[in-house]
Amino acid sequence: MSRLLSKDFLSGVMFIAFGLGALWFGRHLQMGTTVRMGPGYVPHMLAYIMLGLGLIIAVVALYSGGEQVEAPKWRPITMVTVGIIVFALLFETTGMFPSLVALVLIASLGGDEFKLTEVIGNIIVLTILCILVFKVGLQMNISVINGVW
Amino acid sequence: MDMLHNLAIGLGVAISLQNLLYAFVGCMVGTLIGVLPGIGPVATIAMLLPITFHLPPTAALIMLAGIYYGAQYGGSTTSILVNLPGEASSVVTCIDGYQMARRGRAGAALSISALGSFFAGTVGTLLIVMFAEPLTQMAQKFGPADYCSLMALGLVAAIVLANGSVLKAIAMVFLGLLFGLVGTDVNTGAQRFTFDIPELSDGIDFAPIAMGLFGIAEIVVNLEKKMTRSGAIKVSSLWPTREEARRAIPAAIRGTVLGSILGVLPGGGPTLGAFSSYTLEKKISKRPQEFGKGAVEGVAAPESANNAAAQTSFIPMLTLGIPSNAVMALMVGAMIIQGIQPGPEVMTKKPDLFWGMIVSMWIGNLMLVIINLPMIGMWVKLLTVPYRFLAPAILLFCAIGAYSLQNSTFHVEQVAIFGVLGYIFVRLGCEGAPFLLGLVLGPQMEEYFRRAMLLSRGDPMVFLQRPISLGLLIATSVLLILMALPSLRKAREEAFQEEG
Predict the structure, then answer these.
(1) Which of A39, B168, B201, B319 is the most exposed place for a label (fewest CB within 10 A)?
(2) Closest residue to A35, CB basis, from B171, B404, B454
(3) How many C-beta atoms lie closer than 10 Å to residue B57's C-beta?
């Protein structure tokens, strides 16, 4: 079991997956000839190379073992990703300030220390900074709170 | 004569108020991130890419360049004062720099490293000026097959210097090339891997990928680690003694030479320069026992080397359009965002941008000496800012920046997706840099490959028949074979172990 969880074996599997994905999603692309290559020639070529390399990496890892994958800590990656997605969903409907508050709050939950007063302070500083940099400095066309400013 | 004329053009551009301002901003940001551990120039430049979109091209590139070499200065400060390398390229400086600081010579170590860096930066800039024209002229003789082989060499060389498994690095290059294919095929107009998402028909934007892979993934990895910080050492007099200066000057010169050479090589850069020059100093020194206990040479040489390499790594990027490391790949991305296709035409078609950027690098180096030495106390204070304040701030800048690229939240979502992918890469020990190089070079490489095959009527031998292409391919295969040799593989692994 442990060999299946080595970094190298899993990388090999990942490369194979990308190769298969490229073959599947590129299946309708014309190959063309070597003189006049179609849009699918290079993608197919790369997909087969990916498959080959992935196989070699995975097989070598099965025989020689290798470094184990560290158990991932779920909180930081989840909170950071959720924070950005929420920001993306809120930004156009509510404006910069509400989405900023959401992102900073959620992302702060990803760290191992969370003090509400600190986070509020951070939000205030970042709001001022963002208005100065993006709105005043770079003159971007974004609203701070939608419909208000 | 020509050289002076070019420098005059560059000086005219570089000393405009706007460009001076952006050089200053770049140097400040560079120093800042150099001082702060856990965020490097690659992540920073990736995150600032969207902002450069709102600036004029020259100002944008001047600022990004400033961040890159500014980080080399800033990184040394924390290495010396708190034994914490702000940058990978300053890891060796810790060894002797911190020891010097503990013996009460912190000020001397700081000024030696700043002045050595300045000297190296000046030499590096002069080298760019000298080599730019001949290399550009050479590049203009290249046919499609030659270009394709040149890119292959660049990519393979980047692999040699990637950390960890060679096979995985090669696979990452191909994965990058594959991602580079997304979008409309230039020759036929066919949609490739666009999944009917209209935003993808122009290709995946470079900035969200870079931000996700380097910015977001780096933040997440840092959030997982607990960061501990130690107190900084007080700085006394900045002046080195006569004896220290006598030993530092030749070391700085040797470091500059070695760093300049290693910077030009594909895959090279500041980190490699710093490590090699430290090893060199230790080997040729009459007092090798002093290394590790605060030898002046151990600060002067690597600090000069990393800055020299940071400068000269611009040479292949500016003249041939071939990035030699991840930062240069990002610079290529920044140029493409601005609508400039990097390559030999940049110098002839946009001389003001080309020479302006080069001269501003020298001005930036001068600014850095001023920013760094008298203001050292302020930078050290910044070290006490906890990471839990920085992480949300960086994320926020990423998100707003990604949105501002095309006023589309789709770009923000892409940042999140590539952040997850980047995190997977880190966990699996797959290097992001080869991926980025493949991604940047992918579209061009396919174009040159198809054009070369069309010209040769489908005969792949064209890559071996053209002398330039053949030479480049031989160099590529020699590199690949060398990597497979057991003795060299061992040496390579040892080199990286020392680094990590």
Answers:
(1) B201
(2) B454
(3) 19
